[in-house]
Amino acid sequence: MFRLKNKALAAVTITALMSLGSATAWADGLADIRKAGVLKVGVFEDFPPFSSVGGDMSLKGYDIDVAHALADALKVKLDLVGVTGQNRIPYLTGHRVDVLMSVGKNAEREKVIAFTQAYAPYYIAVIGPKAMAVKEAADLAGKSIAVNRGTLEDTSLTAAAPKSADIRRFDNYSAVIQAFLSGQTQLMVVGNDVGAQVLAKRTDIAPEQKFQLLSSPDHLAVDKGEPALTTALDDAIGAMSKDGALDKISQKWLGKRLDPKDLVDQ
Amino acid sequence: MSGLDFGWLPGAAGDLARGVTTTMMLIVVVTAFGTVLSVAGAAARRSRSRLLRQAVASYVEVIRNTPFLVQLFFIFFGLPSLGLRLGNVVAAVIAMTLNMAAYGIEVVRAGLDAVPRGQWEGGTALGLSRYRVFVSVVLPQALRVIFPALSSQIIIIMLESAVVSQIAVRDLTYEADMLQARTFRAFETYLVVTLIYLGLATLMRRAMQAGAYRWILGGRP
Amino acid sequence: MDEFSTADIVVNLLLAVRWTLVLTAVAFAGGGGVGLAVLIARIDRRPWLSRAAKAYIGLFQGTPLLLQLFVMFFGLPLLGLEIEPWMAATLGLTFYASAYLAEIWRGGVEALPKGQWEAAASLGLHYVTRLRLVILPQALRLTLPPAVGFLVQLVKATAVTSIIGFTELMKTADAINNATFEPFTVYGMVAVIYFALCFPLTTYARHLEGAPSR
User: Fold this and answer.
1) What is the pLDDT of residue A55?
2) Chain B contact for C127, CB < 8 A?
3) Residue C54: exposed, middle, or buried by beta-carbon count in 10 A (0-12, 13-18, 19+)?
4) Chains with ≥3 Cβ pairs under 8 A against A?
5) What is the pLDDT of residue A23?
6) Nearest beta carbon to residue A12 from set C26, C178, C183
7) What's the confidence (pLDDT) of residue B217?
8) Dmax over Cα atoms in chain B, in whole Å?
9) Contact A170 B80 (CB under 8 A)
10) Out of B35, B81, B105, C103, which residue is the most buried by the measure of CB atoms under 10 Å away?
11) Which residues pair with A39 in a beta bridge?
């Protein structure tokens, strides 16, 4: 027992010292990635069909396939890092990850992080049970709505919803979906494709998409101080959309062809 | 990382004050329910019904040997499958109350045990009912033992309550989460809010100590 | 998306228990080490040192663990470290444990009869030697029941590290729950697993209390 504790402690100390060393050099992210041979990509772990765990606890989805392709393009290995809406920007600026997937672009964020071109369509939609009449933002008055806090869903819902709407902000997508499915909130605001996964699973509640709040295609986000890395990733996305790789991924996970119009920010 | 930035703080005072209010309101409600449940549970532990005694004992063990966060998620996300749907604030209050009482019952029991048996016998010899003896004779004496332990328990539950932000209760931690998403100054935000919790815990401890001397122990500290 | 069978859920949860146990063990061992240092400072006769240790204990016992973890997590870059859930979880719980263990042990030191100090001093032992050979061994033995009781608290506390993204039992449950949409089953099983970890410790602590060693 005591020896085991000592070993664990030693392991912690050694790893701590190692990460101390690696944190010292961050001159050029792209060169560092090439040298280390690893691209660290921040992805959600509860965000189907973009990225979620399967029965073997490994991550799969649209974002995961794109992440693999990015690592291949840079000729390095892929290291997937699970993130939440709350910690992912600090992860990026703290260099815990090199790039984030599934980031919607807005002016506030552009002050802090850099974006590549969009790689996936994403509509933010209001989802609720068939029986409930909700057609537009004004109908949200007095309704309870679950949303992932600090995300674009949150910002756009908060801006669009009337004051009397009861917006419940949760920490991750898992809690948002769970709160809606268990009837803790009447509606939820998520991406329409995230919603589609839930809709397919729960025929008993018969949830449906009520209306779209905003189209906000997903971008890769990179630290502002890494122009070389941003360009390299932007080029990789450009190449993938030219050679049809993105379209294949879209058909696989979203069940439809990629429409270039869907990748334009509003 | 650039230097620390607290420039957001003045603009956040309103949000933080709202969070403090919610947290304190939760504590007041939970203290009231939790105290009643603790006394009732302690009485049940001394009941003549074996079944009741064992039921209370099992409840205490289950709560004390599982994490608060798991209890909270089970009540909020899990119970609706059984048709029992509780709002987030109600779920938080129930989880906190169940927690406080699981420790409170033991505290009250220890307090009651500290009152000599002779007090019970003396009371019943005067022709008072068991209930009357408990309320008028035993409980006031037991409170001297109970109060300090129960007030630490209240502070512990206040500190544990930070996780109710996870089911979207707008407490102080929830406000901190919202603020850091807006300011991108996560470290500074959580540091300030941690210190606010420390201030609240200190104030509560002082207030309860003063209350104890005023009403229970008599005289001045 | 793959389907989870009930067996998958159980197996994945049980695999995740490893990390709960490793985290508990590392935090208890690390917390014991740091806690001993805090204890020695706390019972020191120099008021500034004793007061600093008291403030340290008060800080960790007077603030929510979740907030301690957040500050640690987002503060790691300030220490020149990478922002990393397991690092924040390990350091956070180690400091947390050190404060509680130091306070528990202080109770043990104060419960020792004054004669122990005097007897040790009359043997001509140096302060440090007195602590090491006479006072600390007795205080640690005397406070074994509350220390084991705190171990239960620590096992439960590891669940909070799921919120900063450390993949232990609770975090795994959240992920599985999101794929299965069966919160009653998943969190129910998680509660049973935590109970199976904690209840034997609680019983052991109670057993020790019943038969205090001298």
Assistant:
1) 75
2) no
3) middle
4) B, C
5) 43
6) C26
7) 66
8) 76
9) no
10) B105
11) A78
What is the Cα C148 distance to its own chain's centre? 10
Please give, rounded to a whole number of angstroms, the shortest distance from the CA of B65 to a CA of chain A.
23
Nearest CA in chain A to C33: A9
Amino acid, single-letter form, for residue B80: P
Mean pLDDT of chain C: 91
Question: What are the helix (H) ranges across chain C?
Answer: 6-42, 47-61, 65-75, 85-111, 114-122, 127-129, 136-142, 144-157, 169-180, 183-210
How many CA atoms are closer than 13 Å to the CA of B128, on its beta-carbon side?
Answer: 16
- DSSP for A25-53 reads --S-HHHHHHHHTEEEEEEESEETTTEEE
DSSP helix/strand/coil, A184: coil
What CA–CA distance (Å, rounded) separates C74 from B19?
A: 21
Q: Which amino acid is at A160?
A: A
Q: Are C198 and B61 in contact (CB under 8 A)?
A: no
Task: Look up tokens 């030219």; give the residue.
Answer: A242
pLDDT, position A26? 45
pLDDT band at A172 (very low <50, low <70, confident <90, very high): confident
Task: Tell me which residues of chain B have a pLDDT lower than 50.
Answer: 1, 221
Whole-angstrom distance, CA of residue C112 vs CA of residue C130:
13
E strands, A93-165, where? 99-103, 113-120, 123-129, 144-148
User: Does the predicted interface ipTM exceed a cut of 0.90?
Assistant: yes
Q: Is B77 an interface residue toward C (CB < 8 Å)?
A: yes
Sign of torsion, CA A141 A130 A177 A173? negative
Tell me the two tokens of residue B133.
């003896």
Beta-carbon contacts of B58 under 8 Å, excluding residues fewer than 6 positions away, are none
Record the tokens describing residue B214, joined without a space. 């005023």
Tokens describing residue C93: 């719980």
| Of residues C89, C68, C106, the one with CA closest to residue C25 | C89
Q: Identify the residue whose tokens are 């396939």.
A: A65
Residue C214's pLDDT is: 41
Residues 6+ apart with CB under 8 A from A185: A144, A145, A146, A166, A168, A179
- Among residues B214, B204, B210, the alpha carbon closest in space to that of B26 is found at B204
Residue pair C161/C24 in contact by the 8 Å Cβ criterion: no
The burial of B54, by beta-carbon neighbours within 10 Å (0-12 exposed, 13-18 middle, 19 or more buried), is given as exposed
Per-residue model confidence (pLDDT) at position B61:
97
